[in-house]
Amino acid sequence: MGRRGFSFVEILMVGVVLSLIIGAILTMASTSEQMWVRTDNQTEAMNITQRALDRLSQDLQSAALASLAICQADSISFSQSGTGIPIAYNRTAANTLERTFNNGQPQVVVAGVTAFLPRCQGELVNLSFTSNVTSTRGTFQQTLQAQVRIHNP
């Protein structure tokens, strides 16, 4: 008599092998998605910090060297060359970086700034920002640094 169909053990083995393959595929997909989300959040943190750094760098490039009044942790103030309009950047207790233009109302440049460290050395201003971006997947920290040379006397 000929054998028909598969035995229970053969079917069971195929089920186990398929389960292992599907489990491996799902694990790889989940890991890929987690890496994508993490990279996306890190990119967002970098973009937020970069925008703040760019804004401050632009203002500093229009500053008069003699006008650097305050250059300390969490704060820098100076005046525009030619116009003399005062500009100040301050990190607040609420971890926001605020820009005050012409002694007006402070405007939030960026939120989530945990460190703002300007260092003035003659005509060079070294800037360091650290910001946190919080999402449903966690909090991501980004630190950017820049050096700005003030050309205006």
Task: Throw out a few tags for this protein.
153 residues, single chain, 9 strands, alpha+beta, 1 helix, 5-stranded antiparallel β-sheet, 4-stranded antiparallel β-sheet
Indicate the topology.
Elements: H1 8-61, E1 70-72, E2 75-79, E3 86-91, E4 96-101, E5 107-111, E6 113-116, E7 119-121, E8 124-135, E9 138-149
Antiparallel strand pairs: 1-2, 2-3, 3-4, 4-5, 6-8, 7-8, 8-9
**Total number of domains:** 1
* SS class: alpha+beta
Biggest β-sheet: strands ordered side by side in the sheet: 1-2-3-4-5
* Uncertain residue ranges: none
Strand content: 35-45%
The helix-strand sequence is HEEEEEEEEE
Distance between the termini: 104 Å
Task: Note the main sheet.
Answer: 5 strands, antiparallel
Taking Cα atoms only, what radius of gyration do you get, to the nearest Å? 28 Å
In total, the number of strands is 9
Determine the fraction of residues in helical runs and give it as a percent range.
Answer: 25-40%
Number of helices: 1
Mean pLDDT: 86
Overall spatial form: rod-shaped
Would you mind describing this structure in some detail?
With 153 residues, the protein is of the alpha+beta class. It has one domain (8-149). It has one helix and nine strands; from the N terminus they run H-E-E-E-E-E-E-E-E-E. The strands form two sheets. The chain has a five-stranded antiparallel β-sheet, with helices on one face. Strands 6, 7, 8 and 9 form a four-stranded antiparallel β-sheet that branches. It is rod-shaped and about 100 Å long.
